[in-house]
Amino acid sequence: MNIDRLIRAKRRTIALIIERDGSLTVRAPKRASLRDIEEFIHEKTEWIIRSREKLKAVVQHPKKQYVNGEAFLLLGQEYELLLVPPQRPALKFNGGFTLAVSARERGEAAFTRWYKEQAFLVFTERIQRYSAMHGFSPRQVKVNSAKTRWGSCSANGTINFTWRLVMAPLDVIDYVVLHELAHLRVKDHSPRFWKLVESICPDFKQHRKWLKENGERLNL
Question: How far apart are CA 98 and CA 87, in angstroms?
Fold first, then answer.
């Protein structure tokens, strides 16, 4: 089975990721041989096939058109968009979204910029809250535009989140925050890791299921 993208990183285990276009990304330890990687992929062939079939079965969420009455998510709630005469900034939020009609063609860029700003504020606040509560010491919080990962924790303690996550309900966001904070203590996804996650987020399975079932909606 072909590898579409191989990423070597400072990690202990090999991870397989089926991207939204069906391509296979492999994240492997720097010292892992190609033979080890190929053997691991061979062992996971059935999982790869099933994952690709599930991906094909998912109804693709239609792209936003930036028209009156269109709904946009924020913290799990839907808010309608209203096109208005020129305003600054072009996109505002006050119990609903207003977008300057002259900026409609730039709607995706305007919303992306706004979501990134809100995401940084929300994620930073939640990281600070749970770090203080559970004794974690992350180095930094960053917001990116990842399409297939809700969050990640780097070897140096920097925690990254995709801005799309700010569309999810707050309790789901908290699960991802706690998940990544837990990686500061346990780097892999071993039973010890999931035991730690459950101790600080007892309902994590419910929130993880929500992301699997609704993740496609968290997009523009």
Answer: 9
Domain with CATH 3.30.2010.10 in the chain: 106-217
Q: What is the spatial distance between Cα 78 and Cα 71, in angstroms, rounded to a whole number?
A: 6
Beta strands 24-29 and 5-9 are parallel
Number of H helices and E strands in the chain, helices first, is: 6, 10
Structure tokens at 208: 């993880």
Q: Is the pLDDT of residue 148 over 90?
A: no
pLDDT tens-place string over residues 150-164: 999 998 999 999 999
Q: Does domain 106-217 have CATH number 3.20.20.140?
A: no
pLDDT at 59: 53
In whole angstroms, what separates CA 135 from the centre of its chain?
24
Strands 140-144 and 158-162, bridge-based pairing: parallel
Q: How much is the pLDDT for 60? A: 62
> Under 8 Å CB-to-CB from 157, ≥6 apart: which residues?
137, 138, 139, 140, 184
In the predicted structure, residue 208 carries a pLDDT above the cut 90: yes
**Residue 121 has which token pair?**
């504020």
Helical ranges in the chain per DSSP H: 34-43, 45-57, 107-134, 170-182, 191-200, 204-214
In 3-state terms, what secondary structure has residue 7?
strand
Can you give the C-alpha Rg of the chain in angstroms? 19
What is the structure's pLDDT at 58?
60
Highest mean pLDDT among 54-58, 91-95, 147-151: 91-95
Residue 56 gets which letter from DSSP?
Answer: H
